[in-house]
Amino acid sequence: MSFSKLQSKQFLLLLSFLLLSFGFFLWSDNHCFSIVRFLNRTLSIHLTESFWGSGFSYISTLLIYFGIVTVVFFLYRSGKISRKQFGVISIVLFVIHYFFYLVKNSYNYPVYDDHGAILEFLNHYTRANSLQEKVKLLLAPFWESRITVPRIFILITWKIFHEINFQYLVWFDAVLLLSFHFLLMKKLLQGQPDCLFYILGLTFLALQFQAYNSIFCDLSGLCYNGVLLFALLSFYFLKSGKKIAPIILAIAATLTFGNGLWIFPLSILYLWNQKRRKEIFLWLIVLVIIIVANIYSRTSFDVYNGVSFHFINFILFIPGVLGSAFQFLYTMHIPVAMGCFVITVFVISLLKKWYVSSPVIFMMLAFLVISAVSAAPFRSGIIPNGEYALQVRYGIFSVYSIILALAILIENTSLRQGKRYFMILFFGFGYNLLTGLFFYPEVVVRTKRVQILLEETQHGKYIPVYSIYKEKEYEELISESVAKGIYKPR
Predict the structure, then answer these.
(1) Pairs from 464-468 (Cβ < 8 Å, separation ≥ 24)
(2) How much is the average pLDDT of 167-184?
(3) What residues have CB less than 8 Å from 164, skipping those under 6 apart?
(4) b vs e for 457-486, b when ≥16 Cβ sit within 10 Å of the residue's Cβ?
(5) Which of 2, 57, 354, 394 has the fewest other C-beta atoms within 10 Å?
(6) 424-452: buried (b, 16+ CB within 10 Å) or exposed (e) per residue?
(7) Residue 478 lies in a domain
(8) Which residues lie closer than 8 Å to 6 by C-beta, 6 or more apart?
(9) Residue 471, in any domain of the structure
């Protein structure tokens, strides 16, 4: 079917009717369960009705959304609204769709690193008697990273509201993600007024629930989304000729998550290539200070004991991490293939010197590729064959690796053509639909467990399910946080 046919008014109205009809049909849980039962009978498989029914429920609202967007596109083709209005309306509606599911599944309950990095930190902070002790707590390492910036944000939040509400932090993490995403999209739109389909497709890729562990873990969201935002701003201001702002933002990124340190060597190489060599000296001084301070301030290096350079683990982990957003059926095959695509595009962009034509996009892509390589010694040996790369919390880095790889291809090849933009739109929509089917049900399962755990916590029963703490340590941690009013389970 030709592209012009897809844009014909009659076809658009028919497509919108079909999408809305099927979407509203799937809206009913009973219809979703019926489809699962039909698939079980027809294919002789054993899909869980409640689990896969949740996936079809997500698909129902996605189809309704796309049906509405098709109507909006019809209005654009009819001359009723402008191209820009079509793009803005479509993206805003999709952000609303994303926040609908985010708010629906977020609760005031801490999970995983929230316990140590937020509650334990604040418990210790309230016990500290001197300014020196408090500053030491802010600068203390957390695993391989320094998370001073997230701790300062947590501290400010606690001082203003006199408690930590983990549900609100999930929402703030989403705002951070949106800030990064749309700043990146604004950069891609510069000089490209005709690529709204492409931007919408990339937004479909970004706003989904594959990386649900980081989306609903407040500390992970603050660190991952924060370091991406600081890195993008640092590279942008560096390219704009600023001298101090990029360094400040690079320091903020380094004190947000460990991989922020890679901004320094990438920026130094960029300055060298641009013959801005006088500026390199300051970057080198700050980098040396950070490295020396990190080494001499650590009281223990136990976190580095698990370093492994096993070849097979190492070589599979790197592309596995970069492509982990495509881990459908939880196997390494598709992630490794997608990761190899990202690495291939990065190597091509290096050989063809696309860092000259697309410096910000190239540096962001290099930042994520180097982050994956640097994580391999610490993570690749945890599970044989590098399969620790499939941890869903790394999905945010993976999906933006793929987005940036597509972006640098778009900016430097014939992929700028309108038809290709339309293909990326449907690729993004198809990916979002599949993540809704395969991964959103995991969110629903998690939400139901969190609801039960929150009720138990409200009645004074502290059960360490989503935690690395043992039962007694967990009970002491939550009890102290509740007693001090830091955490109010409600």
Answers:
(1) 466/111, 466/112, 467/111, 467/112, 467/115, 468/112, 468/115, 468/116
(2) 94
(3) 118, 119, 122, 154, 157, 158, 486, 487
(4) beeeebebebbebeeeebbebbebbbeeeb
(5) 2
(6) bbeebbebbbbbbbbbbbbbbebbeebee
(7) yes
(8) 422
(9) yes
Instruction: Report how far residue 377's alpha carbon sits from residue 158's, in angstroms, rounded to the nearest whole number.
Output: 36
Phi, psi (degrees; rounded to nearest 5) at 279: -75, -20
Summarised one tens digit per residue, pLDDT across range 406-419 is: 989 888 887 555 56
Q: What is the mean pLDDT of the chain?
A: 88
C-alpha span between 189 and 191 (Å, rounded): 6
Q: Say how many domains are in the chain.
A: 1
Q: Is residue 9 scored above 80 in pLDDT? A: no
Tell me, yes or no, whether 146 lies in a domain.
yes
Query: Average pLDDT in the 144-165 region?
Result: 92
Residue 6 has pLDDT above 60, yes or no: no
Q: Which of 23-27, 226-230, 392-396 has the lowest mean pLDDT?
A: 392-396
Residue carrying structure tokens 């919108």:
16
The answer to whether position 106 is within a domain reads no
Query: Does the pLDDT value for residue 188 go beyond 60?
Result: yes
Q: Return the sign of the alpha-carbon dihedral for residues 431, 436, 437, 441.
A: positive
Higher-confidence residue of 248 and 77: namely 248
Chain segment 292-315, per-residue pLDDT in tens:
888 776 665 555 555 666 678 778
Band (1; pLDDT cuts 50, 70, 90)? very low
Whether the per-residue pLDDT at 469 is higher than 60: the answer is: yes
Phi, psi of 343 (to 5 degrees): -65, -40
Cα four-point dihedral sign 139, 177, 457, 143? negative
Which tokens is 100 given?
Answer: 């609908």
For residue 154, give its domain range.
113-164+459-483
> Residue 299's closest CA among 160, 140, 101, 108?
140
User: If you average pLDDT over residues 430-442, what whole number do you get?
Assistant: 92
